[in-house]
């Protein structure tokens, strides 16, 4: 799909509004009402509550759902969001994916109480804890939470799950957890494995179907990757554009330094491999 291709073109994509300025998975979609993800932990939580409050005042009949992790739940912005949501009765669903670790910090070092769900009631927020690896449980709970939120009753969902992979390419999770622990979750409690078992038991999924789907998916991804590789790189100056309506003096100075650097070391920067110079703004 176009959305998948857009993600793969991260650094070189001249076609999407983000132009590679965000991190790899920080995409958004106006069409699907999906707001661009923020890097700072819990940053999007007060924003979600604010949006929900605006929807409430406009009587739009819309609900906001915000996803975050157990690490973000320890941030001040999270508790500020809970406070506003509860007192203003906002149509918002807080969905916490409690996967056991905030990078390398285990939940045992993040809170002393009974998890994240217990943080809801003190703020007049209904809360429920669910098996985050159970597809149907998550679906049904989220559907029910939406119905509550439509009545201007904020809801908190704590989905108990596990991060089987590393936090990022800079993280080596073997330094703080055992391989046996990871493999148990990967093989027995993996939500994909569990859902696949259910479909096979119902006769709705076969090995041949899975093999065919995997080949088709791999083909689509590689085609998108190859197409992205052939695109021109964005002009280096693009990093300064479309952030401020009027660039502050500090950015203007940095931009001049970049231009001087590119000119001085032109042999190392074959500009024919880059896109056109963006509109110059000061």
How is this structure best described in words?
With 282 residues, the chain is an alpha/beta fold. It has 2 domains: 2-226, 3-Layer(aba) Sandwich (Rossmann fold), CATH 3.40.50; 236-273, no CATH class. Helices cover 39% and strands 10% of the residues. It contains 8 helices and 6 strands, in the order H-H-E-H-E-E-E-E-H-E-H-H-H-H. It has helices at 2-8, 44-58, 76-88, 135-149, 179-187, 191-202, 207-230, 249-264, and strands at 64-69, 92-98, 101-102, 105-106, 126-131, 155-160. It has a 4-stranded parallel sheet, with helices on both faces. A two-stranded antiparallel ribbon has the order 3-4. Helix 3 links the parallel strand 1 and strand 2. Helix 2 packs parallel to helix 3 (76-88). The chain is globular. The two termini are 37 Å apart. Residues 9-13 have low confidence and may be disordered.
What would you say about this model in short?
The protein is α/β, with parallel strands linked by helices and 282 residues long.
Helix tally equals 8
CATH hierarchy, class of the largest domain: Alpha Beta
What class do helices, strands and sheet pairing give?
alpha/beta
Count of distinct strands: 6
Strand content: 5-15%
Q: How many independent structural domains?
A: 2
Query: Order of strands in the sheet with the most strands?
Result: 1-2-6-5
Amino-to-carboxy terminus distance: 37 Å
Described by the principal axes of the CA atoms, the overall outline is: globular
User: Can you tell me the residue ranges where pLDDT is under 50 for at least 5 consecutive residues?
Assistant: 9-13
Mean pLDDT: 89
CATH third-tier fold name of the largest domain: Rossmann fold
Domain Dehydrogenase E1 component: 17-236
GO molecular function, one term: branched-chain 2-oxo acid dehydrogenase activity
Organism: Parascaris univalens (Nematode worm)
Catalytic activity: N(6)-[(R)-lipoyl]-L-lysyl-[protein] + 3-methyl-2-oxobutanoate + H(+) = N(6)-[(R)-S(8)-2-methylpropanoyldihydrolipoyl]-L-lysyl-[protein] + CO2
């Amino acid at each position: 799909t176009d959305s998948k291709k857009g993600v793969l073109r991260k650094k070189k994509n001249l076609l999407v509004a983000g132009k590679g300025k965000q991190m790899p998975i920080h995409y958004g979609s106006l069409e699907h009402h999906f707001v661009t993800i923020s890097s700072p932990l819990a940053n999007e939580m007060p924003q979600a509550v604010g949006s929900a409050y605006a929807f409430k005042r406009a009587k739009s009949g819309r609900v906001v759902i915000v996803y975050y992790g157990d690490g973000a739940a320890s941030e001040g912005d999270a508790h500020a969001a809970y406070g506003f949501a509860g007192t203003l009765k906002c149509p918002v669903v807080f969905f916490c994916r409690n996967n056991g670790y905030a990078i390398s910090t285990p939940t045992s070092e993040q809170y002393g109480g009974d998890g994240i769900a217990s943080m809801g009631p003190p703020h007049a927020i209904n809360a429920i804890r669910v098996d985050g690896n159970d597809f149907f449980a998550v679906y049904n709970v989220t559907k029910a939470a939406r119905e509550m939120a439509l009545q201007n009753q904020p809801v908190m969902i704590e989905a108990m799950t596990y991060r089987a992979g590393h936090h990022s390419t800079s993280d080596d999770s073997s330094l703080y957890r055992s391989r046996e622990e990871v493999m148990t979750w990967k093989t027995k409690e993996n939500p994909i494995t569990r859902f696949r078992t259910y479909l096979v038991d119902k006769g709705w999924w076969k090995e041949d179907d899975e093999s065919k789907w995997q080949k088709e998916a791999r083909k689509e991804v590689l085609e998108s990757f190859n197409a992205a590789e052939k695109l021109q790189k964005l002009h280096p100056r693009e990093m300064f554009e479309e952030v401020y309506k009027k660039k502050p003096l500090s950015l203007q100075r940095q931009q001049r330094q970049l231009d001087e650097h590119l000119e001085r070391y032109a042999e190392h920067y074959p500009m024919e491999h880059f896109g056109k110079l963006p509109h110059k703004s000061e």
